[in-house]
Amino acid sequence: MKNAQLVSVIFLLILPVSCKPDKPFIEPPKDIVTKKKLDFYTEVQYGNMPLIISVPHGGTDNPSSISDRTCPNITTVTDSRTIELANAIDSVCKADYAIQPYLVISYLKRTKLDQNREINEATCSNSSIASIWNNYHLSIDSFITKILLKYPQALFVDLHGHGHTKQRLELGYLVSGSELRNPSSILPSSTSYYNMLLQNPFLSKNQFLTTPNAFGTLMANKNFPCVPSAQDPAPLLSDPYFDGGYNTQRYTSSVYPKVYGWQIESNFIGVRDNQTSRVNFAKAFLQSIMEFYSRNTSMQPSTFGK
Ligand SMILES: [Zn+2]
């Protein structure tokens, strides 16, 4: 009898514990509210709005400990001052809107690593820097997950700089110059905004290229000319034009069905050339992004960060 009573007491003591969930609750890692280096060359920042800005080609770090890329047919040009441009956007966002974008920045020179290529071309098969490539791309991946816990969609912008003569932003939606000149030939499923069309089936397939609500049109309205936009729908046949690269393809693909975005190839004069230009650009960029959300999505910027 005594033993039976003892067993009952033990059972009652154990019962509340055994009612707890099988898995212990794991506290999520604390958000990185300031920029943080994941390795010597990869810097990230958690945001509190549905925007990720990736800066793969602005790095100037040139360590002799990492060999130069030597695989064939590669591009190694640095997109100068694009890190400073992203930082200007971040600073203006914090100052004017009291919110901040997610940032992923590479400080390593493109002669060493190209963070806008798949890993073999990115590293030229140098396995010693594969972890740096992974830190960059796993960050974007985890930031997308993080955003989608709170917001229905995520916007991805891959920020670059071009050296073309015409001083305008070249927006890359994975639509070629030839297709922009012949819009009826555009295949929506191959664009970087296809995920958005799927979520909003009533939108026209050119909604994000040349309508009044396209990002390019909104920027051009603020004196930052863009192609494509309502003001400048397509590059001329003779114009060099970047239509988007690996990162834009990867992070707006069907693997990430709630992400859409575009590549920005920024001109130098009036955008990247000095801090005044960069701050002016940042203000226009953020105003246009907020207008873009309000006009094209169910997400209202006034709720961001709340
Ligand atoms: Zn670039």
Could you explain the architecture of this structure?
The chain has 306 residues and is an alpha/beta fold. It has one domain: Aminopeptidase (3-Layer(aba) Sandwich), CATH 3.40.630.40. Helices cover 33% and strands 12% of the residues. It has an 8-stranded mixed beta sheet, sandwiched between helices. Helix 2 (82-97) crosses helix 9 (275-296). It is globular. Bound molecules: zinc ion. The site of zinc ion has 3 residues, from loops.
- Helical content class: 25-40%
Per DSSP, the total helix count is 9
* Estimated structural class: alpha/beta
Biggest sheet layout: 8 strands, mixed
Span of the ends, CA to CA: 60 Å
Query: What name goes with the CATH superfamily?
Result: Zn-dependent exopeptidases
In total, how many domains does the architecture comprise? 1
Q: Which CATH class?
A: Alpha Beta
The CATH architecture can be named as: 3-Layer(aba) Sandwich
Number of strands: 8
Keywords, separated by commas or semicolons:
binds zinc ion, single chain, 9 helices, 306 residues, alpha/beta, Aminopeptidase, eight-stranded mixed beta sheet
